[in-house]
Specification:
Length: 233
């Protein structure tokens, strides 16, 4: 009789564990989807794809406490309009990735959260930058490639091709400061253009560098507000 009781108990515990794990994963998928949709709506990623991944197990325990150790946000293939909204001046972003650490929410229904630390990168491909400078020049094609001399928040790029019927071989600068990206190409018809990036409050650009695959911009933030701003009513 005792062996049977132990066997029944073991089977019951196993079934409950499986059901809890299944419920935990279902709840996690729902939360990831809802958080991704909120991020798309808040930060204007609606023209691309957005994924949110809440790390750690079990999710339900973290949700009950309103505290998550690590949450990642990735937005792909979206674009930014120029600060002056000039037609054709949009900037394609290949990927924006943020790692959010020590995230707290006041309730499961809250549309805002806080993260103690945020780090990440924003990546621009040379193909997209080549298409951009060609559109800005109104002729071309122009080709963007890496150039030496990136320093701090200024990435150096090389722009070659034909602009306005003239050969162009220029060293340009892509500057990332605050939440704004600006591109300067000496010799081009529209030498400078700027774009504002919608980022969580407290996150800013900290470095820009030209790599072999594209321009990579680093982001960092402390005491970051996600979703609704703490200054909003």
């Amino acid at each position: 009789m005792r062996r049977r009781w132990v066997k029944v108990l073991a089977i019951t515990v196993t079934i409950l564990a499986v059901l809890f794990t299944a419920a935990d994963r279902i709840a996690l998928r729902y939360a990831n989807h809802e958080a991704a949709q909120l991020a798309k709506d808040k930060y204007s990623f609606t023209n691309g794809s957005t994924d949110v991944a809440i790390k750690g197990f079990p999710f339900l325990t973290q949700a009950a406490g309103g505290s998550f150790g690590h949450v990642s946000l990735t937005a792909r293939k979206f674009y930014l309009d120029t600060t002056t909204n000039r037609q054709g001046g949009y900037l394609d972003v290949d990927r924006l990735h943020l790692d959010l650490h020590d995230v707290t929410v006041s309730s499961l229904s809250a549309r805002t959260a806080r993260a103690n630390l945020a780090t990440g990168t924003l990546t621009l491909t040379y193909k997209d930058l080549s298409d951009l400078v060609t559109r800005l020049a109104g002729s071309g094609p122009l080709h963007v490639s890496p150039a030496p001399g990136s320093d701090g928040q200024a990435a150096r790029i090389k722009v070659t091709g034909t602009a306005g019927g003239n050969a162009l071989n220029s060293a340009g600068t892509l500057l990332a400061q605050g939440t704004e990206i600006s591109l300067t190409v000496p010799g081009a018809e529209r030498a400078t253009s700027s774009w504002r990036t919608s980022l969580p409050e407290g996150v800013d650009f900290t470095e820009a560098r030209a790599t072999k695959d594209g321009v990579e911009i680093s982001l960092t933030g402390h005491q970051v507000t996600l979703g609704t701003s703490r200054f909003s009513r």
